[in-house]
Description:
The structure holds three protein chains of three kinds. Helices cover 73% and strands 0% of the residues of chain A. Chain A is an all-alpha fold. Chain A starts with a helix and ends with a helix. The relative contact order of chain A is 0.13. By secondary structure, chain B is an all-alpha fold. Chain B is elongated. Chain C is of the alpha/beta class. Chain C has two domains: 2-248, P-loop containing nucleotide triphosphate hydrolases (Rossmann fold, 3-Layer(aba) Sandwich), CATH 3.40.50; 261-366, CBS-domain (Roll), CATH 3.10.580.10. The longest helix of chain C has 18 residues, at 168-185. Classes of the chains: A mainly alpha, B mainly alpha, C alpha/beta. Chains in contact: A-B, A-C. Chain A binds chain B through residues 1-2, 5, 70-77, 79-80, 82-84, 87, 164, 167-169, 171-172, 175-176, 182, 185-186, 188-189, 194, 197-198, 200-202, 204-205, 208-209, 212, and chain B through 70, 72-82, 84-86, 88, 91, 160-161, 163-164, 167-168, 170-173, 177-178, 180-181, 184-185, 188, 191-194, 197-198, 200-201, 204-205, 208-209, 212.
Amino acid sequence: MIGQVFSWLTDSAHWTDTPIDTGIATQLLAHIRFSLIAVGIAAAIALPLGLLIGHTRRATFLVAGANALRSLPSVGLLVLLTVLIAPHFYGRTDIGYVIPTEIVLVLLAVPPILSNTYAGVDNVSPAVTDAAKGMGMTERQILFGVELPCSLPLIFSGLRSATLQVIATATIASFVPLGGLGRFIYDGLQQQDYPQMISGGVLVAALAMAADLLLALIQRSVVSRGLSGRFSRAVVVTSTSERTEVEAG
Amino acid sequence: MTSMTSTSSSPWHFFGYFLDHRSQDLSWLWTHAWLSVVPVIIGLLIALPLGWLSRRYGWLYPPMVSITGLLYTIPSIALFVLVPPLLGLSSLNPVQVPIALTVYSVALLVRVVADGLASVPDEVNQAATAIGYGGVRRLFAVELPIAVPVIAAGLRVATVSNVSMVAIAGTIGMSNLGQLFQLGKDLSTPTAYYPPIVLGIVLCVLLALVLDGLIILLTRVLTPWRRAVPSR
Amino acid sequence: MIRFESATKQYPDGTLAVDALDLVAPSGQITVLVGPSGCGKTTSLRMINRMIDATSGRILLDDQDVASVDPARLRRGIGYVIQHAGLFPHRTIIDNIASVPLMLGRSKKEARAGAMELLERVGLDPRFAQRYPAQLSGGQQQRVGVARALAADPPVMLMDEPFSAVDPVVREQLQDEFLRLQSDLGKTIVFVTHDIDEAIKLGDQVAVLRVGGRLAQMATPAELLSNPVDDFVANFVGRDRGYRALGFESVTALPLESEPTVSLDSSFTAAEKAAVDGWVLVLDGERRPQGWLAVADGPSATGDTISTATLRRGGTVAERDGTYRAVLDAALSSPTGRGVIVGPDGTFAGTINASRVVALIEARAEAPR
């Protein structure tokens, strides 16, 4: 079976579009597009909201409320919204499926980003914010100069977990039916073409890992080494005898 | 006011729909509950020794966390379809879903167990050793009870997300509440038919809430000292 | 100069944190606010830079009501040091120190150059510049905290228990260095602590506050020890205050006894001959006291030389113009009862016994002061 999957994936005919079938490349791009839109919208909502709630310590119930969303079954919600919305759109457009899919994906991505952003700001040591205020920083400077950079590790872990969930769930968009890598899974299932179905699974897993890796790399370059604990040795150290001391410190 | 008949397609008719298809729905609910709970329990049993090991031998922790983190990046539906070829099973096999969910539970819980054991204060461990608790006895008599709150928090996440993932397995033909969504979708052409969809959502949310509540309750029973009010 | 004019802080629930405080912190001096928890000392401090606003009364900074100044601008002109330093974990040490100068619009280059200078001034190796706070010990972080507060060269510094989170040995070091720094800089400092010993050590004047935010006594450390206004202050200042007060008064014209001494390379026979009541003081080549030799202990095992192994080194040594406390302690701690007194250069000056020191102290107490 593994050999069949491998040859299905490496068959160049499966990568390009034909009049009957949409190829891997197109579905991959569609999958990335759905996911990017959803994570983008969710971040645009949850990041500022989380920063604000964390900074002011007001309306914290919103965080708990968003977390309660997590117990909603995403497939069920997707089917419900599709049945509700899709009939309002006619013709050759798939917008009637895109809207419910994006709503479900955004609902899925908001809780982790919101709660992690809030927790990140909330976790900043009170001594640090007190010192920032005491040296004459304005609320704005404290939020963007201290609290935001200090929360980045947690914000990124929220973004990464949101992205993983969105990519995973975008797969079931094909169930309603919409493009994306899930197409191969559901088509493969229907046609009992198991190499195709499993290839779909492999492609989604690979996309998820690639996205996570990409975010991890961005995180590395954005988060201060003072927070991540990856202290530079080369910058400070001039001789080997001092190296151990720096590492120990 | 329209009269409610069993053929009404109103979303609010889900309860009537449930009554009409009670035995089928209950059997789906029952499988759904089992599929949500059993993998978490098996996962915990596997994660306990792994978590303990990676706590005991510090060098094991980073690779353990990386590997389990990597497993967690695999989307659930992908894992569902990947399990049979990897294990040499037939392509639609009833055990593929519980196996995949167990993998997720292990992936989540190894880290939780290790972090939970790390949450036991050092002085408590040293005191336990000093009064004569050895390795395994100390683990069960001292460390695990103290780690219960952290582990329970991980169990709640694992269980609630399992409920949602089991429903996804329903869309690839597995027999559980996810079938209600498949059914609702199929019955909604050409006109919308809401009852099975709404019923599925309601039952899934209820199941998640009940299981979550059970874990909270169990945690409270297991950690009576956390309910004690500090004396003044 | 900082002046509190019946400054009051009352919380909405009616609690009085600071009750009509009148107090002056003179320019160029260290004013310590001390008291038990709940006495409003931190609240009083935080009212100066408007981290907390007074509900009534005024606080004047060089005759300007702080309430009339924009809080952020006010704070940029006042150094602020707190208990856990509160360094920015995401910025390097050098950038932490340069924070305020950068906010005040100085160039990055200028701010960093100033920060490097301060780093050395607070006793840290320049190699620390590119490190992050997490790489530093608590005591080192606290030094950076002080450097950061000094960076814009503010005339006023507010310090809220800056040394209480570090261990006693490091705390003592930090206190000594802080006093040395202040003798160079002459800042107007308001310092909050719950530790009366720290207050007495550091303060030019000490304000003791009682629970409920009322000023119990404002005095110099010596005055506080010798003349507490009431039981509360007396209890708070603690035991041994008569003895501790002697630490604030220098002796004058100490009547010293001459004392026969021998040097380290003398023979035991010579030492035995010089000894008085079986004891002789041993000096090194530069006439600095090394310890007492008991004749009864005998010569060293190798021959007729002094056994340095048996030298009694337990006694303290006081300077001739040191405090009464140091002189008395030298006498009390000496195995011979004869306290060893040295000159400013550390060379031996003479001895004095406890009863003569006590007589001096008594004579000083009778004289009108």
